[in-house]
Specification:
It comes from Cellulomonas wangsupingiae. Pfam families: MST (PF04978). This is DinB family protein. The chain is mainly α and 186 residues long. It has a single domain, classed as Four Helix Bundle (Hemerythrin (Met), subunit A). The protein has six helices and no strands. The protein is globular and about 45 Å long. 30% of the residues are buried.
Length: 186
């Protein structure tokens, strides 16, 4: 993804409509990119205070949402797909002490750090997806089994799950952004 400054003066990142006619992989990747960029639109121009602001009674914040999605990217495309160890900052976290660490710790992070964390995770994911598609396509299965079923999942399943994850959290982002400054819409 292009580097996009989260400062109030930055321009909104471009977001393309997912392809209306493409093969399955192109359609899935188009929708995933669409939802990733929708998240960026919801964060457009916000400072650190705005990224830390919850919408009570929830403690969810836009900064926590961005950090959570960075963790989700690294988990599915690194840990589950490759059976690779967690990368920083996730590997050093005491998850037993705070199972919502990515959400709670985001309040201590600058907008630039959150964006960098997310950008880096997305870039790693994009490299993983491209390599997997080149090596055999959507029917390949993960190296690590799903934690609930004990069965590996296909690349297709992971991509659909990631679209669902972003779509769900973009709904949260809609409400959080409106509570921060009244901004609504896409």
């Amino acid at each position: 993804m292009d580097d996009v400054d989260l400062s109030p003066a930055r321009l909104t990142p471009e977001r393309d409509e997912p392809p209306h006619r493409s093969d399955e992989a192109g359609t899935l990747l188009g929708f995933l990119d669409f939802h990733r960029r929708t998240l960026l639109l919801k964060l457009d121009g916000l400072d650190a205070d705005a990224l830390r602001r919850p919408l009570p009674p929830s403690t969810m914040t836009l900064g926590g949402l961005m950090k959570h999605l960075a963790m989700v990217e690294d988990n599915w495309f690194g840990v589950v797909w490759h059976d690779a160890p967690h990368v920083e900052p996730w590997v050093s976290v005491d998850w037993k002490a705070d199972r919502d660490w990515e959400w709670t710790s985001a309040a201590d992070d600058s907008p630039e750090h959150l964006r960098s964390l997310w950008d880096d995770a997305v870039e790693r994911s994009q490299r993983t997806i491209a390599a997997a598609l080149a090596a055999g396509g959507l029917d390949q299965v993960s190296a690590r089994p799903h934690r609930l079923t004990g069965e590996p999942v296909s690349l297709r399943w992971i991509l659909v799950h990631m679209i669902e994850e972003y779509a769900r959290h973009n709904g949260h982002a809609d409400l959080l952004r409106e509570a921060v400054d009244g901004t609504t819409g896409e």
